Amino acid sequence: MKKFIFIIAVLLLTVSSGVNAADLIGGEFKLENTYYESMKEKHPELMSVFNLELDQQTWNGGFHIDLKFSDDLNKNQLEIALNEAYINYYGDDYDLHFGKQLISWGTAAEFNPTDNINPMNPEDIFGDKQVLTMLKGNYYLNNNYELSGVIIPFHRPVKDSFNFMGNEFKVEAVEDDLANTEYAIKLSGKGIEGFDYSLSYYHGFEDIPTAVIKMTPGGPVPDKIYFREYSIYGVDFATSHKGVGYWLEAAYTVPEQGDEYYSSVIGADYKFENGFYLEGQLIYQKDKFLNENVIIQQGLEKEFARIHNFKLGSLYNLDTEGYMIKPQFEFSLDDNLILNLSYTESEGDLMGNEMFNLESGLNMDLTYSF
Amino acid sequence: MKKIFAITFLLILMSGAVVFGEDLTGVDLLLKMDEMMKTEQKYMEEEMILYTSSGSERHRKVKVWNKSTDGDNMLLKFVEPASVEGTGFLMIEDDMWLYLPALGKVKRIAGSAKQGSFMGSDLSYEDMEALGSSGFSEDYKAELLKKEKIENRDTYLLNLSPVDGELSYSKLEVWIDSKMFLPLQIFYYNENGEKIKELKTFNYKMIDGRWTSMKMQMKNLQKESMTVLKVNEISFGKEIEDKIFSTRFLEMGN
């Protein structure tokens, strides 16, 4: 009910502010149809998602509100969520952004070790991350150098329970306390002698819980399950030489208790004269569970019939032999109507942890933007 | 009164004849064309229409800022359709960045992206640079082949050969209008000497003291597709601040 009242308030505020609605309202309507191998004889999943975006931006500032209405058509279950809602202010040499928002850091493709501010979405590990309420400020030293700072007042985990030997345990939440405020800073340079680079630092609490196990006469039991406080030092750079794009991104994580861990990506891309775009990445990481993995990621893209697109993505973990291959066709049916067909074939541990595994299946979605 | 008109008309004709008859070399003509097309700064609102070989049409509207006082700079933002709205492209000399709202971040683009089509159109990045800001005289040697009339206009036909091998074309044929010094038509040839693209310009207007083509049509003869660029608004005189050409403004609203 509170959500409905909020939506109505936003719409009333918008209409009464006298802003031209056509310039302000946008969004998309998407029909998603997914069929996973495990569903066998069942009907495919069918979701309708309606994103309503209210957006007003000028050179001086603006606001953005994104409401998501999703309906599982099999279960007739409607969910309404406020995705992003933030205001922007652009000063002469600084910006301020306040509200529920997403911040993306890093130069690598899809897998970004330095992108640690928003927690991932447990229901869609490779999809959009969860939005967080935060204050972000950028100070521009000149056209090339920028200093960013982010303050995140509340910790939001990926999961708040811990499974141990088949039993679910509640995790000790991070207290709402000023001392627990999370923050991040980044210094970035763009177009410096042909290079882009950044140095970043993040301090906060892990999104995935850690358990301290104690031995009892009855066997091992979790003594304490909590989110460790940690710091992440990040670096990234990107350049282009003789037509080939190169990038490197790495993060080193230091938890207050336990062992340090890290992840790094090195990649390159090239667009051929015939329009083929090829991208490759090598990922090397030691994750928070201290599993070491080397992963090869590849992407290929080519337009066809002038307005349609074909993509092929793949991933192979050299340590676990887990793999994923995903061909995808993107058909432009009209200026604002896109049909997407894809098939995902996946097997084994992709990132060295079953949390990141994907299920094989077919996906079709039809998106209308307005 | 009739006499005055007749004399004036004769003088205009003669002045035209003098210009057309002037002893200009291919290099002079190419420099004059670049001078007419190149500006220190330019702001445009354009409509891009893509026609596929099967007859489908796709429409895009863009805003473009160009400035070449300190190197060639360009900022382009998609305004329509909704599916690409907010997508931006920034070029500062040889550095290029793309902003995709769905990703929420600016991504550096490899130099090889210049080999592909510009934003899905029949123009390449190289074509856009030459026509929009950098001109042709730095990259091509020009030779005057002949004078001829096309579409009832007196033109100079130039043959352009690349100065080095890094360009996508082995040869260009350019028809330059003898009065406006704008290209009326350009044929682009590949390494095998085959004509692969045809550019035609239309609707000429005098804006801020310079001739400007308000419509441009590029045909891709291999893919049988075509892109039409229509200028809806253009300004050469309005001051564009240097800070516009930064990744900050690439992400910002307009």
Key terms for this structure?
heterodimer; A: mainly beta; two-stranded antiparallel sheet; 22 strands; globular; B: 254 residues; alpha+beta; outer membrane lipoprotein receptor (LolB), chain A; 13-stranded antiparallel beta sheet; 4 helices; disordered N terminus
Q: How would you sum up this structure, described in words?
A:
The complex is a heterodimer of chains A (370) and B (254). Helix content of chain A is 5%, strand content 59%. Chain A is built from 2 helices and 22 strands. Chain A has helices at 2-16, 21-24, and strands spanning 25-36, 45-57, 61-72, 77-90, 94-101, 132-140, 145-152, 161-164, 167-170, 182-192, 195-205, 210-216, 219-226, 229-241, 244-255, 261-271, 277-286, 292-304, 308-317, 323-332, 337-347, 361-369. The longest helix of chain A has 15 residues, at 2-16. Chain A is globular and about 70 Å long. By secondary structure, chain B is of the alpha+beta class. Chain B has a single domain (22-251), classed as outer membrane lipoprotein receptor (LolB), chain A (Clam), CATH 2.50.20. Chain B contains 4 helices and 13 strands. In chain B, a hairpin with an 8-residue loop joins strand 8 and strand 9. The longest helix of chain B is centred in the N-terminal third of the chain and has 20 residues, at 2-21. The chains are: A mainly beta (370), B alpha+beta (254).
